[in-house]
Amino acid sequence: MTAKREHKPIEAMTNMPTKKEISKGAWAPEEDKKLAEVIAIHGAKRWKIIAEKAGLNRCGKSCRLRWLNYLRPNIKRGNISDQEEDLIIRLHKLLGNRWSLIAGRLPGRTDNEVKNYWNSHLCKKINQKEKQSGASIGEESKGEKRTTEKADTVEVTREEKQSSCNNYTGGEESNTSFNVDDFFDFSNEDRLNLEWMSPFLEMDGRFTGMS
DNA sequence: AACGACTACAACCGCTCTGCC
DNA sequence: GGGCAGAGCGGTTGTAGTCGT
User: Fold this and answer.
1) Matching InterPro entries, A to Z (predicted)?
2) Of A20, A63, A146, A152, which has the highest C-beta tally within 10 A?
3) SS (H, E, C) A103-116
Protein backbone atom coordinates (compact mmCIF):
# COMPACT_ATOMS: atom_id res chain seq x y z
CA MET A 1 0.00 0.00 0.00
CA THR A 2 2.68 2.41 -0.87
CA ALA A 3 1.11 3.82 -3.97
CA LYS A 4 1.93 7.43 -4.56
CA ARG A 5 -0.89 9.72 -3.68
CA GLU A 6 -1.49 12.97 -5.41
CA HIS A 7 -3.46 15.11 -3.05
CA LYS A 8 -5.69 17.60 -4.69
CA PRO A 9 -5.45 21.14 -3.40
CA ILE A 10 -8.02 21.82 -0.72
CA GLU A 11 -9.59 24.53 -2.82
CA ALA A 12 -10.18 21.98 -5.52
CA MET A 13 -11.88 19.66 -3.11
CA THR A 14 -14.01 22.13 -1.24
CA ASN A 15 -15.56 25.45 -1.88
CA MET A 16 -13.97 26.91 1.17
CA PRO A 17 -12.88 30.48 0.63
CA THR A 18 -9.19 31.02 0.99
CA LYS A 19 -7.89 32.99 3.90
CA LYS A 20 -6.08 35.98 2.41
CA GLU A 21 -5.54 33.81 -0.67
CA ILE A 22 -3.03 31.62 1.10
CA SER A 23 -3.04 28.26 -0.63
CA LYS A 24 -3.18 25.10 1.39
CA GLY A 25 -3.19 21.46 0.58
CA ALA A 26 -1.12 19.51 -1.87
CA TRP A 27 1.60 21.18 -3.84
CA ALA A 28 1.31 21.34 -7.59
CA PRO A 29 4.36 20.44 -9.69
CA GLU A 30 4.57 24.05 -10.89
CA GLU A 31 4.72 25.23 -7.30
CA ASP A 32 7.51 22.78 -6.55
CA LYS A 33 9.42 23.99 -9.56
CA LYS A 34 9.06 27.64 -8.65
CA LEU A 35 10.07 27.00 -5.08
CA ALA A 36 13.13 25.01 -6.09
CA GLU A 37 14.18 27.73 -8.49
CA VAL A 38 13.92 30.47 -5.90
CA ILE A 39 15.78 28.41 -3.32
CA ALA A 40 18.53 27.72 -5.84
CA ILE A 41 18.97 31.46 -6.20
CA HIS A 42 18.40 32.73 -2.69
CA GLY A 43 19.20 29.73 -0.56
CA ALA A 44 17.03 27.90 1.90
CA LYS A 45 16.61 30.75 4.36
CA ARG A 46 14.16 33.54 4.99
CA TRP A 47 11.18 31.43 4.02
CA LYS A 48 8.74 34.30 4.01
CA ILE A 49 10.82 36.05 1.38
CA ILE A 50 11.23 32.85 -0.59
CA ALA A 51 7.47 32.40 -0.64
CA GLU A 52 7.05 35.93 -1.91
CA LYS A 53 9.81 35.68 -4.50
CA ALA A 54 8.42 32.45 -5.84
CA GLY A 55 5.07 34.13 -6.26
CA LEU A 56 3.43 31.32 -4.38
CA ASN A 57 0.36 31.92 -2.32
CA ARG A 58 1.93 29.89 0.41
CA CYS A 59 3.19 30.85 3.80
CA GLY A 60 6.90 30.59 4.46
CA LYS A 61 6.34 27.77 6.85
CA SER A 62 4.64 25.72 4.21
CA CYS A 63 7.49 26.37 1.77
CA ARG A 64 10.05 25.32 4.32
CA LEU A 65 8.21 22.11 5.05
CA ARG A 66 7.82 21.29 1.41
CA TRP A 67 11.50 21.86 0.75
CA LEU A 68 12.74 19.92 3.76
CA ASN A 69 10.43 16.97 3.35
CA TYR A 70 10.16 16.63 -0.37
CA LEU A 71 12.23 18.84 -2.63
CA ARG A 72 15.57 18.88 -0.87
CA PRO A 73 18.33 17.07 -2.76
CA ASN A 74 19.37 13.62 -1.54
CA ILE A 75 15.98 12.89 -0.07
CA LYS A 76 15.32 9.18 -0.01
CA ARG A 77 11.70 8.27 -0.28
CA GLY A 78 10.11 5.00 0.76
CA ASN A 79 11.86 1.65 0.99
CA ILE A 80 13.13 2.00 4.50
CA SER A 81 15.65 -0.77 4.89
CA ASP A 82 15.79 -3.26 7.74
CA GLN A 83 18.90 -1.56 8.99
CA GLU A 84 17.22 1.81 9.01
CA GLU A 85 14.16 0.36 10.68
CA ASP A 86 16.26 -1.21 13.37
CA LEU A 87 18.04 2.06 13.89
CA ILE A 88 14.76 3.93 14.21
CA ILE A 89 13.51 1.49 16.81
CA ARG A 90 16.68 1.70 18.84
CA LEU A 91 16.92 5.44 18.61
CA HIS A 92 13.30 5.88 19.53
CA LYS A 93 13.86 3.74 22.56
CA LEU A 94 16.63 6.03 23.62
CA LEU A 95 15.35 9.39 22.50
CA GLY A 96 11.60 9.08 22.50
CA ASN A 97 9.69 11.12 19.98
CA ARG A 98 12.59 13.32 19.03
CA TRP A 99 12.10 12.71 15.37
CA SER A 100 14.50 15.29 14.11
CA LEU A 101 17.31 13.75 16.12
CA ILE A 102 16.41 10.29 14.90
CA ALA A 103 16.12 11.47 11.32
CA GLY A 104 19.45 13.21 11.71
CA ARG A 105 21.09 9.82 11.97
CA LEU A 106 19.36 8.48 8.88
CA PRO A 107 20.84 10.03 5.75
CA GLY A 108 18.21 11.21 3.34
CA ARG A 109 15.36 10.66 5.75
CA THR A 110 13.26 13.46 7.14
CA ASP A 111 11.77 13.79 10.57
CA ASN A 112 8.34 13.76 9.03
CA GLU A 113 9.01 10.54 7.19
CA VAL A 114 10.47 8.86 10.24
CA LYS A 115 7.54 10.02 12.32
CA ASN A 116 5.03 8.77 9.80
CA TYR A 117 6.85 5.48 9.44
CA TRP A 118 6.87 5.04 13.16
CA ASN A 119 3.20 5.84 13.57
CA SER A 120 2.05 3.68 10.71
CA HIS A 121 4.45 0.74 10.79
CA LEU A 122 6.68 0.43 13.78
CA CYS A 123 4.36 1.22 16.64
CA LYS A 124 2.09 -1.57 15.53
CA LYS A 125 5.01 -3.91 15.27
CA ILE A 126 6.24 -3.00 18.70
CA ASN A 127 2.83 -3.26 20.28
CA GLN A 128 2.57 -6.76 18.89
CA LYS A 129 5.94 -7.66 20.32
CA GLU A 130 4.96 -6.27 23.68
CA LYS A 131 1.82 -8.35 23.68
CA GLN A 132 3.70 -11.44 22.65
CA SER A 133 6.04 -10.94 25.56
CA GLY A 134 2.99 -10.86 27.78
CA ALA A 135 3.67 -7.37 29.02
CA SER A 136 0.05 -6.46 29.33
CA ILE A 137 -2.11 -9.40 30.20
CA GLY A 138 -5.79 -8.66 29.94
CA GLU A 139 -5.06 -5.48 28.08
CA GLU A 140 -6.43 -6.53 24.76
CA SER A 141 -5.22 -4.96 21.58
CA LYS A 142 -7.93 -2.53 20.69
CA GLY A 143 -6.46 -2.06 17.28
CA GLU A 144 -6.59 -5.74 16.54
CA LYS A 145 -10.07 -6.09 17.92
CA ARG A 146 -11.18 -3.54 15.47
CA THR A 147 -10.49 -5.86 12.63
CA THR A 148 -12.86 -8.43 14.00
CA GLU A 149 -15.57 -6.37 15.59
CA LYS A 150 -17.90 -3.75 14.34
CA ALA A 151 -16.73 -0.22 14.66
CA ASP A 152 -19.67 0.81 16.80
CA THR A 153 -18.81 -1.70 19.47
CA VAL A 154 -15.15 -0.85 19.75
CA GLU A 155 -14.24 2.76 19.88
CA VAL A 156 -10.58 3.25 19.21
CA THR A 157 -9.70 6.71 18.17
CA ARG A 158 -6.62 7.57 16.23
CA GLU A 159 -5.61 9.57 19.27
CA GLU A 160 -5.70 6.50 21.45
CA LYS A 161 -3.69 4.49 19.03
CA GLN A 162 -1.11 7.19 18.67
CA SER A 163 -0.76 7.82 22.36
CA SER A 164 -0.19 4.16 22.96
CA CYS A 165 2.52 4.25 20.32
CA ASN A 166 4.06 7.46 21.41
CA ASN A 167 4.21 6.39 24.99
CA TYR A 168 6.28 3.41 24.06
CA THR A 169 9.63 3.79 25.71
CA GLY A 170 10.95 0.30 25.77
CA GLY A 171 9.91 0.18 29.36
CA GLU A 172 12.77 2.22 30.72
CA GLU A 173 13.27 5.31 28.68
CA SER A 174 11.05 7.44 30.84
CA ASN A 175 13.44 7.04 33.72
CA THR A 176 16.52 7.33 31.59
CA SER A 177 17.87 10.80 31.35
CA PHE A 178 21.05 11.59 29.54
CA ASN A 179 22.50 14.33 27.52
CA VAL A 180 22.03 13.47 23.88
CA ASP A 181 25.12 15.39 22.96
CA ASP A 182 27.17 13.03 25.09
CA PHE A 183 26.21 10.28 22.72
CA PHE A 184 25.91 11.97 19.38
CA ASP A 185 28.65 13.52 17.42
CA PHE A 186 26.65 15.33 14.81
CA SER A 187 29.67 16.21 12.80
CA ASN A 188 29.99 12.58 11.86
CA GLU A 189 29.15 12.23 8.20
CA ASP A 190 28.83 8.48 8.06
CA ARG A 191 25.62 8.32 9.94
CA LEU A 192 24.69 4.79 9.09
CA ASN A 193 27.94 3.55 10.45
CA LEU A 194 26.75 1.85 13.58
CA GLU A 195 30.00 2.39 15.43
CA TRP A 196 28.74 5.65 16.81
CA MET A 197 25.96 3.78 18.50
CA SER A 198 28.18 1.42 20.42
CA PRO A 199 28.31 3.48 23.64
CA PHE A 200 24.65 2.94 24.23
CA LEU A 201 23.96 -0.17 22.22
CA GLU A 202 25.56 -1.96 25.10
CA MET A 203 23.22 -0.20 27.46
CA ASP A 204 20.42 -0.94 25.04
CA GLY A 205 21.19 -4.62 25.34
CA ARG A 206 19.46 -4.53 28.65
CA PHE A 207 16.23 -3.76 26.92
CA THR A 208 13.96 -6.08 25.08
CA GLY A 209 16.57 -7.48 22.81
CA MET A 210 14.76 -6.23 19.78
CA SER A 211 16.63 -6.16 16.51
C1' DA B 1 -20.11 -3.89 -7.68
C1' DA B 2 -20.76 -1.18 -3.65
C1' DC B 3 -19.60 0.27 0.58
C1' DG B 4 -17.26 0.97 4.87
C1' DA B 5 -13.03 0.27 7.46
C1' DC B 6 -8.29 0.55 7.46
C1' DT B 7 -3.87 2.45 6.11
C1' DA B 8 -0.17 5.53 4.50
C1' DC B 9 1.53 9.82 4.06
C1' DA B 10 1.55 14.83 2.83
C1' DA B 11 0.54 18.84 4.93
C1' DC B 12 -1.07 21.89 8.54
C1' DC B 13 -1.13 23.63 13.37
C1' DG B 14 0.53 25.24 17.56
C1' DC B 15 4.14 25.61 20.46
C1' DT B 16 9.02 26.46 21.71
C1' DC B 17 13.53 28.02 20.74
C1' DT B 18 16.84 31.31 19.02
C1' DG B 19 18.74 35.46 17.37
C1' DC B 20 18.36 40.21 16.64
C1' DC B 21 17.17 44.92 17.84
C1' DG C 1 15.44 42.32 29.96
C1' DG C 2 11.50 42.58 26.62
C1' DG C 3 9.48 42.18 22.20
C1' DC C 4 9.44 40.51 17.71
C1' DA C 5 10.24 37.52 13.71
C1' DG C 6 12.00 33.49 11.78
C1' DA C 7 13.10 28.75 12.24
C1' DG C 8 12.41 24.23 13.98
C1' DC C 9 9.92 20.56 16.09
C1' DG C 10 6.34 17.23 17.40
C1' DG C 11 1.48 16.36 17.21
C1' DT C 12 -2.49 16.04 14.54
C1' DT C 13 -5.53 16.08 10.60
C1' DG C 14 -7.25 15.28 5.91
C1' DT C 15 -7.39 12.65 1.93
C1' DA C 16 -6.99 8.92 -1.28
C1' DG C 17 -5.63 4.12 -2.11
C1' DT C 18 -6.44 -0.57 -0.62
C1' DC C 19 -8.75 -4.26 1.52
C1' DG C 20 -12.50 -6.99 3.39
C1' DT C 21 -17.26 -8.06 3.54
Assistant:
1) Homeodomain-like_sf, Myb_dom, Myb_TF_plants, SANT/Myb
2) A63
3) HHCCCCCCHHHHHH
